Amino acid sequence: MPVHNVLETLVRTVLDEAFVKPSRLPCACPRCLDDIMALALSRLPPRYVATDAGTLYVKAAYMHPQLQLDVYQELLRAAEVVAAHPHHGPEAGAGTPDGQAAGDAAQSPDGSP
Fold first, then answer.
1. Least enclosed by CB within 10 Å: which of 48, 49, 51, 105?
2. CB 5 within 8 A of CB 46
3. Alpha carbons within 13 A on the beta-carbon side of 3
4. Taken in order 30, 33, 38, 39, is the CA torsion positive or negative?
5. Tens-binned pLDDT, residue by residue, of the chain (113 aa)
6. In what helix (H) or strand (E) does residue 4 lie, and over which residues does it extend?
7. Distance between CA atoms of 36 and 19, rounded to whole angstroms?
8. In whole angstroms, how large is the CA radius of gyration of the chain?
9. H/E element holding 48?
């Protein structure tokens, strides 16, 4: 198993479950999600592991409420920064991963749902 930061997996999971799936982000395009991940991970202490046992240890440590709170707070802070200063242009398909603006419902050409 190559050395990696287990927090990357944990942060991605929290980002998806707490922000993306409930549509709490103004934009969930891959660029914005990567920017949110990078900002949050930069402010959290890394948890590097080289074995599966190390991965299990860090995941068990994540059950501690303080670490959960730290991850959530850093994701929230990063999401606010990225929302205020997105690095994608209109051609990036801002919105959800499928390119639809967050919160938009499918509409017919005449504008009706």
1. 105
2. yes
3. 3
4. positive
5. 789 888 998 999 999 999 999 999 999 999 999 999 999 999 999 988 888 888 888 878 888 889 899 999 999 999 999 999 998 765 554 454 444 444 333 333 444 44
6. strand 4-5
7. 11
8. 17
9. strand 48-49
